[in-house]
Structure formats: structure tokens, C-alpha cells
Write a structure and sequence with these properties.
By secondary structure, the protein is an alpha/beta fold. It is about 40% helix and about 15% strand. It is elongated.
């Protein structure tokens, strides 16, 4: 019980750390569905692990009804987890989430198999997942990584990476040595992220333009 209360206290403090809109403790208690869903999950997870699976499942279903956040009671969640604007978040049964992880609205940690066993993602410590991102299967997202909004991740992601796109591609990696020295790591500032698909389209347009110029030159010489 003491451990559970300590987890809840740390979860509460995480809201102040990650959301500049939080103004008071009473506001957090009353107005943060992400915190409500997490507290209910902590209790449901204890019930699930103590062979009261139906009660845990009913509790998680109630949480989904009042918060719009679906966390299976079998999911393992570490310390200081935060769901910001959590409507539509789905966390599957065998998902494993480390410490200091943050999810935005519409994130799915889903499975790709009907077989029992590990079938949902593992998120290591200090991962941030942007709005609408989907992470599928028993993949591992390395510590201190960032998953861009609306990305679809179906492969493992190395630590200290930033991923964008469908399917998700690593577009930036942080130097581990600089990371240990405290180099600032931007949290999903999408305006500064590379756009691999836009770059590919620009390259395609350039190639088409060059081919068009060559064709015009051939036509001009043939006259």
C-alpha cells in the first residue's frame, strides 16, 4: 500500500513538471483525466496481479468511460507517467512503460497478433510520444526517444532517437556523450524536425524537371 501511495504522489508531481497550464493542486485533482486514469490503473493493476482479474478489468472499463483513456490492467507502468489531453489513448495488456514517460492524446500502444504472450510495445525511460502516434507490436522504444505526432512505429527504435513518418523513420539521433553532459533535447518541436517525405517529394520534382528540360532539348535539336 505504501508503494502504491508513493507512486500516486510521484504521478501527481509529474503533472506540474510536464504541463505549464497546471496552476494548483486542486485543479490537478479535479480536472486532469490523465491523472484520474493513471490512479485507477494503479489500483486495477494490483487487483489484476492478485488474481482479481475481472474486478481489475471492470475498474479499467469504468476508467475508460469517465476519462476516454483505455489502459488494460495488465499493462506495466513505471514512475511519474503522464498522459496529457488523453482522450483516445489506448495501452494494451502486455505494454511495458518505463519511468518519466509522456503520452499525448490519441496515442495507441497496440498489438499485431492474436497469440497470447508479449504482443504490445515496450517504452523505456524518458520517452515522449506525440499526439495520434501509433506504436504496434512487441517493439522497443529506447530511452530518451521522441515519437512524432501521427507517426506509425512498427520496428524497434534505438535510444536517443527522434522518429517521424509512416512507417516511422529515425530522423535525428542525440549523441550519447553529449546527452550524458546534459545537452538539451527538444521535446517534439515539430517545426524544427526534418521532413523525409517532403524531401523525397522535392527530389522527385527536381528529377522530373530535369527530365523535362532534357526532353525539350532533344526536341529542339531534332527540329
Amino acid at each position: 500500500m505504501f508503494k502504491l501511495l508513493k507512486l500516486m504522489k510521484d504521478d501527481f508531481g509529474m503533472v506540474f513538471d510536464r504541463d505549464p497550464a497546471a496552476r494548483s493542486k486542486i485543479e490537478i485533482v479535479l480536472c486532469y483525466p490523465g491523472l484520474h486514469a493513471l490512479i485507477i490503473h494503479r489500483i486495477a493493476h494490483v487487483l489484476w496481479n492478485n488474481h482479481l482479474k475481472l474486478i481489475g478489468r471492470l475498474l479499467s472499463h469504468f476508467s475508460r468511460w469517465i476519462t476516454g483513456i483505455e489502459i488494460h490492467p495488465g499493462a506495466t507502468i513505471g514512475n511519474r507517467f503522464f498522459v496529457d489531453h488523453g482522450m483516445g489513448v489506448v495501452v494494451g495488456e502486455t505494454a511495458e512503460i518505463g519511468d518519466d514517460v509522456m503520452l499525448y492524446q490519441g496515442v495507441t500502444l497496440g498489438g499485431t497478433s492474436w497469440n497470447k504472450g508479449k504482443r504490445h510495445p515496450t517504452l523505456e525511460n524518458n520517452v515522449v510520444v506525440g499526439a495520434g502516434a501509433i506504436i504496434l507490436g512487441p517493439v522497443t522504444i529506447g530511452h530518451d526517444s521522441r515519437i512524432g505526432s501521427s507517426s506509425v512505429v512498427i520496428h524497434d527504435v534505438p535510444s536517443l532517437s527522434t522518429v517521424v513518418g509512416i512507417p516511422g523513420k529515425v530522423v535525428r539521433r542525440r549523441d550519447p556523450i553529449l546527452a550524458e553532459e546534459g545537452e538539451h533535447h527538444f521535446d517534439l518541436q515539430h517545426g524544427t524536425l526534418p521532413d523525409p517525405f517532403g524531401d523525397a517529394m522535392d527530389g522527385l520534382r527536381k528529377s522530373v524537371a530535369e527530365l523535362n528540360d532534357r526532353l525539350l532539348e532533344v526536341e529542339r535539336r531534332s527540329k
